[in-house]
């Protein structure tokens, strides 16, 4: 068997394990099933399980997004599109890289609803992912860390809105299409000089957002870093 075929088979097996673990966590709660139960559900041995996941918890949250080398390179390298477009494109791909079906996102949502004890670990992971993405963005000329944080925070909000759309109405369009719709809406709001109240209350953070949304070529430094993006 070729190396690529072996890798594909291994990836498929891991996805089966993660899906089965999530289904069991929804049905019985994280503490309500054992690794033996998981092995039986998948039809493999415990040894095979540990070849793919390090623990029961890791199996349940195994589909959390990861920023790989290609994603990092895309964030570091300026392209033809505005910076925020690149951020949303990368985050959209990251979210969809493990299981891009609506069923997969719904299953993960149900896992968290049923097992709130997983939230701290998931939140920690997502914050680390956002910080890594922001750090990669600072390799671009004129983008300091506060501006990078702003770009990632806005991008994460766009992804969250798009995911909500897809979960509430699976026929509404692809994740990428919904991301584009919400990104366009962000531009209409943020780039509107008549923003009014938001400008008065959030001037510091709004200026940082404007630089990355409306003028991707700017070199002006941001004045303050926004808080971490939502998980």
UniProtKB/TrEMBL annotation:
Domain HTH tetR-type: 11-71
This protein's record includes keyword Transcription regulation: yes
UniProt keyword annotations, A-Z: DNA-binding, Transcription, Transcription regulation
GO molecular function: DNA-binding transcription factor activity; transcription cis-regulatory region binding
Pfam families: TetR_N
Gene3D superfamilies assigned to the protein according to its UniProt record, in alphabetical order: Tetracycline Repressor, domain 2
InterPro entries registered for this protein in UniProt: DNA-bd_HTH_TetR-type_CS, Homeodomain-like_sf, HTH-type_TetR-like_transc_reg, HTH_TetR
Record's keyword annotation contains DNA-binding: yes
DNA-binding region boundaries: 34-53
Name of the protein: AcrR family transcriptional regulator
